[in-house]
């Protein structure tokens, strides 16, 4: 899981920057609105909404902001209308990339995605061209200084039903089957351990190692995609060696 842990750390660092700029809350709000619109405003009966709310809580989104987004999606308040769109393609070095968007205008979003991929040495592909290389998983990250000792953290995660618990640098990454995600998250919460992030994600079955210029362009592509307002999640199967990451900052 070492490759995954580095990928999770990159996403976690990016999430902290997004949170400072307010961008992460905007993305969480869109996800809640769409989940409530498609499945109703009761989290107990709408698993997708529960996932979206858990992710918003992990991003420290205020309770009243979450509730307002639920009401917008459920039609109790006026709100925006979004639709789910998934884009797939390749980045530098043959890296597979999946981009999940929530957009109010496909005719705007599709050209923007094509432009971003092309700018950083990638290309947008057809639906399904890379998604078969990924598997849906629940992923919870915890900062080392907010976790118990290593043995206790491992026991807590595995006893709760996690598939894996790995410490890489200053971050724990807990991986679960989607069906066990909420159970594991609740066990961690009940143990008084604060999660830095928690979400259902797409994990690569295999990774592609990239170095040098390709590594720099892959990270630039990832950043550019995530910075787009319509983009909710970016998944990729790249693995950048530690020494390369250190050089790239």
Give an account of the 3D structure.
With 249 residues, this protein is of the alpha+beta class. It has helices at 2-21, 23-39, 47-58, 63-73, 106-119, 150-160, 181-190, 212-227, 242-248; strands spanning 83-90, 96-103, 123-124, 134-143, 164-168, 171-176, 197-204, 208-209, 231-236, 238-239. It has a domain at 2-73: Arc Repressor Mutant, subunit A, CATH 1.10.10. Helix 2 (23-39) packs antiparallel against helix 3. It is globular and about 45 Å long. Residues 1-5 have low confidence and may be disordered.
Key descriptive features of the protein:
249 residues; alpha+beta; Arc Repressor Mutant, subunit A; four-stranded antiparallel β-sheet; 9 helices; disordered N terminus
The first-to-last residue Cα distance is 22 Å
Low-confidence region ranges? 1-5
CATH topology annotation of one domain: Arc Repressor Mutant, subunit A
* Overall strand count: 10
List the helices and strands and how they pair.
Elements: H1 2-21, H2 23-39, H3 47-58, H4 63-73, E1 83-90, E2 96-103, H5 106-119, E3 123-124, E4 134-143, H6 150-160, E5 164-168, E6 171-176, H7 181-190, E7 197-204, E8 208-209, H8 212-227, E9 231-236, E10 238-239, H9 242-248
Parallel strand pairs: 8-10
Antiparallel strand pairs: 1-2, 1-3, 2-9, 4-6, 4-7, 5-6
Helix pairs in contact: 2-3, 2-4
């Amino acid at each position: 899981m070492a490759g995954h842990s580095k990928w999770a750390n990159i996403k976690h660092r990016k999430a902290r920057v997004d949170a400072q700029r307010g961008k992460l809350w905007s993305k969480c709000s869109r996800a809640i609105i769409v989940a409530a619109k498609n499945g109703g405003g009761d989290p107990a009966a709408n698993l997708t909404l529960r996932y979206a709310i858990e992710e918003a809580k992990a991003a420290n989104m205020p309770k009243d902001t979450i509730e307002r987004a639920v009401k917008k999606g459920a039609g109790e308040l006026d709100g925006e209308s979004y639709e789910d769109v998934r884009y797939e393609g390749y980045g530098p070095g043959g890296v597979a990339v999946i981009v999940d968007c929530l957009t109010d205008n496909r005719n705007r979003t599709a050209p923007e995605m094509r432009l971003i991929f092309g700018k950083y040495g990638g290309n947008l592909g057809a639906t399904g061209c890379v998604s078969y290389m990924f598997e849906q998983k629940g992923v919870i990250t915890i900062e080392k200084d907010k976790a118990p000792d290593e043995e206790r953290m491992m026991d807590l995660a595995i006893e709760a039903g996690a598939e894996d618990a790995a410490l890489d640098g200053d971050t724990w990454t807990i991986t679960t089957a989607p069906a066990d995600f909420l159970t594991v998250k609740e066990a961690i919460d009940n143990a008084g351990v604060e999660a830095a992030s928690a979400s259902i994600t797409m994990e690569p079955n295999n990774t592609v190692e990239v170095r040098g210029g390709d590594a720099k362009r892959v990270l630039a592509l990832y950043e550019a995609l995530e910075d787009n307002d319509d983009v909710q999640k970016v998944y990729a199967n790249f693995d950048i060696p530690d020494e390369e990451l250190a050089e790239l900052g």
